């Protein structure tokens, strides 16, 4: 306990303690720019009703692992619908996107070479560690570095893995160039579409679809059902050989209880809604551009958002924490990202746009970001301490 308390004290000193605060259903009365509910579907009546119906019919839990009793007709239907929606030949549903990444990267990359972008999500980092492969982390967005590592490899098989939309910076990976490099060197490309599904491309079919890579046998996609689809769970999309490998050898597939039926029902209803509402993803992207323009107009460092994620880079963790608290004081809940979630010196606020944001919401955001801009220009209160 002494060791744990001392380590906690060091994190406290560095501004790196985490606060686990339960929220109320209405986000404590704050405007929510922190969740990943990009299309506002998690509380949409149609989605909630679909979850209730599926739960009534199939039960609250799936009762077992997918290979025993945890596969219902709903799971099979969801797999068919996800594959059809994203233009993939097949899909395999997991109980989270995290577990989908663990299986895709660890099982497909096993005992070979994995080339992973420095900005990739923690679930990919963990999957690389589980793969027992040589892992080379390349600088963020550097396709030439990827190609060089592939060309100089001694391993027989190789896998290139990248987020489609990076979870904090919100930028899109150079998918076409990465695919070209992967194909040239006989490697598979794994693309994590967590922040792209439902937001990027026609009807929100994702970044790989938008790049013309859907259905390519050498492209494997992972998705989460927990962000734009408003549900929970994940999936891997790919060729029959890929899906078969994961069913037989993907440990996070085999040894985990199947996705809860209510989540499968909710995700199916969300896919119906996306097919019927082509304007929804574009609205989320438009709101993101408006948020970024607001931040930039106030002199804050941000980026051109390609999806719904808008970073506001502040630097020191303490400054980011103070800025997030200030936003809450002004009625807006934002995400606050500090190392190790972001590189040292790049602590930031993460604003997520939602398709259902109204123009008066943006007025409230302006008030909050104005206060943040003033804080950054004011005297340092030991931010770098
Ligand atoms: N990949 C990325 C890029 C993510 O941001 C996340 C969620 N934070 C995941 C995977 C994991 O998905 P899930 O939350 O469904 O486990």
Automatic annotation (TrEMBL):
Domain of life: Bacteria
Keyword Transferase: yes
UniProt keyword annotations, A-Z: Biotin biosynthesis, Pyridoxal phosphate, Transferase
Residues annotated as domain Aminotransferase class I/classII large: 30-362
Catalytic activity, as annotated: 6-carboxyhexanoyl-[ACP] + L-alanine + H(+) = (8S)-8-amino-7-oxononanoate + holo-[ACP] + CO2
Pathways per UniProt: Cofactor biosynthesis; biotin biosynthesis
InterPro entries named among the record's database cross-references: Aminotrans_II_pyridoxalP_BS, Aminotransferase_I/II_large, AON_synthase_class-II, PyrdxlP-dep_Trfase, PyrdxlP-dep_Trfase_major, PyrdxlP-dep_Trfase_small
Enzyme Commission code(s) on record: 2.3.1.47
Gene3D superfamilies, alphabetized: Aspartate Aminotransferase, domain 1 (3.90.1150.10), Type I PLP-dependent aspartate aminotransferase-like (Major domain) (3.40.640.10)
PROSITE patterns associated with the record: AA_TRANSFER_CLASS_2 (PS00599)
Cofactor: pyridoxal 5'-phosphate
Subunit structure: Homodimer.
Sequence similarity: Belongs to the class-II pyridoxal-phosphate-dependent aminotransferase family. BioF subfamily.
Designated name of the protein: 8-amino-7-oxononanoate synthase
Organism: Microbispora amethystogenes
